[in-house]
């Protein structure tokens, strides 16, 4: 095993800032019975895996003191990245591939991968010209090439894990067009944001607070989830919010904290359905943590909204100053139920849906 280069460490930090430690893997050395002499090999320089999407990174840096033809260096490094990313894709098919520890220290499987993105990152100051795409027959598509500065720009301006994976698909289509071949990364980013949000510089309100909140989620969680899967599903759920949903999330969270502080207890703040999902979030202000009655109300909210899954943020104050947030994640395919129909129309519960705020006897 070798120490990480300066460029690899810079990419690891970018990955943590955008994708959160639960989904970032940087210690990727392994062996297999399929290798001669069971030699150690590295899966990639960095892997990000959220849900069924995976991004594999290969990073190349050029020493500023090195002279020589820059175009030749770029072409050689892109070809090397292409070969390494092809190897990554093939290694992922091994039947004895081990589980790796993420940046939060949890050893977890990658799970089923439906979308694989291979990225070549070229770390050379003021690198203006490089191929944006390189076709790979093995990958049945393109690897995407970025200068380090351009990829950092993407992370800063795009800002969320889900938007980044969507951007990679958009970028691939964008740069395969003949008339866009010479466009800059800035041009592509502006086109993506305008198409998705209607403006090239959408509001980032709440983004920093949300990132800080999610980056320390593991350390500050107080619920006993029973198993690690519950915790990972919650983080994955939150990590897939887009910037509009993040703004709504921060607003609902702050308003619910305010309700709980005033003992103005409520179940009525709900987000959803979230984009391209049958899922939502309910924010609950109450006097104590999660109870069985509360779980029932969350399920009824899921049914009323016709969600297949719902996340509940349960907020309560331990004293006049300190509050806690408990989390409850429920996944259940929606289907019609006469019993549930009757329950959601019960007067006490109907008052909750209609926005009544009162002290609730848990």
Rg calc: 23 Å
Structural class, judged by helices and strands?
alpha+beta
Main sheet? Answer: 6 strands, mixed
Strands, count = 14
Level-2 CATH architecture of the largest domain: 3-Layer(aba) Sandwich
Concise account of the structure shown:
The chain has 362 residues and is α+β, with helices and mostly antiparallel strands. It has 12 helices and 14 strands.
Tell me the layout of helices and strands.
Layout lengths: L5 H14 L4 E2 L3 E2 L10 E2 L3 E5 L2 E9 L8 H22 L8 E2 L5 E2 L6 E9 L9 E4 L4 E7 H11 L2 H15 L9 H13 L9 H9 L1 H4 L7 H12 L3 H19 L4 E6 L7 E7 L6 H14 L3 E9 L5 E9 L6 H7 L2 H7 L9
Parallel strand pairs: 5-8, 8-10, 12-13
Antiparallel strand pairs: 1-4, 2-3, 4-5, 6-7, 9-10, 11-12, 13-14
Notes on the structure:
The protein has 362 residues and is an alpha+beta fold. It folds into two domains: 6-197, Restriction Endonuclease, CATH 3.40.91; 207-353, no CATH class. It is built from twelve helices and 14 strands. The protein has a six-stranded mixed beta sheet with strand order 1-4-5-8-10-9. Strands 11-12-13-14 form a four-stranded mixed beta sheet, sandwiched between helices. Strands 2-3 form a two-stranded antiparallel sheet. Helix 1 packs parallel to helix 3 (148-158), helix 3 (148-158) packs parallel to helix 5 (185-197) and helix 10 crosses helix 11 (338-344). It is elongated and about 75 Å long.
């Amino acid at each position: 095993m070798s120490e990480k280069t300066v460029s690899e460490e810079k990419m690891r930090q970018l990955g943590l800032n955008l994708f959160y430690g639960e989904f970032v893997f940087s210690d990727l050395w392994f062996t297999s019975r399929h290798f001669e002499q069971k030699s150690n090999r590295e899966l990639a320089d960095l892997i990000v895996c959220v849900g069924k999407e995976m991004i594999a990174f290969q990073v190349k840096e050029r020493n500023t003191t090195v002279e020589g033809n820059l175009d030749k260096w770029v072409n050689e490094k892109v070809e090397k990245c292409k070969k390494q990313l092809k190897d990554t894709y093939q290694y992922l098919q091994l039947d004895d591939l081990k589980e790796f520890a993420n940046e939060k220290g949890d050893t977890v499987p990658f799970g089923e991968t439906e979308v694989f993105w291979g990225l070549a990152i070229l770390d050379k100051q003021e690198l203006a010209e490089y191929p944006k795409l390189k076709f790979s027959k093995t990958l049945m598509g393109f690897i995407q090439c970025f200068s380090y500065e351009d990829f950092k720009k993407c992370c800063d301006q795009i800002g969320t894990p889900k938007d980044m994976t969507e951007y990679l698909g958009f970028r691939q289509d964008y740069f395969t067009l003949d008339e866009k071949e010479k466009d800059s990364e800035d041009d592509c980013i502006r086109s993506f944001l305008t198409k998705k949000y209607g403006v090239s510089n959408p509001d980032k309100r709440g983004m920093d607070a949300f990132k800080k909140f999610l980056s320390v989620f593991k350390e500050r969680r107080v619920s006993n989830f029973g198993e690690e899967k519950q915790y990972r599903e919650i983080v994955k759920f939150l990590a897939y919010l887009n910037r509009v949903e993040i703004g709504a999330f921060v607003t609902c969270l702050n308003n619910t904290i305010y309700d709980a502080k005033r003992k103005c207890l409520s179940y009525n703040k709900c987000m959803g359905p979230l984009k391209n999902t049958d899922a939502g979030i309910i924010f609950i202000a109450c006097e104590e943590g999660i109870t069985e009655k509360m779980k029932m109300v969350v399920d009824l909210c899921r049914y009323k909204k016709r969600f297949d899954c719902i996340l509940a943020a349960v907020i309560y104050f331990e004293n006049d100053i300190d509050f806690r947030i408990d989390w409850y994640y429920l996944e259940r395919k929606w289907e019609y139920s006469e019993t549930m129909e009757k329950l959601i129309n019960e007067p006490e519960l109907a008052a909750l849906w209609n926005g009544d705020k009162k002290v609730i006897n848990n």
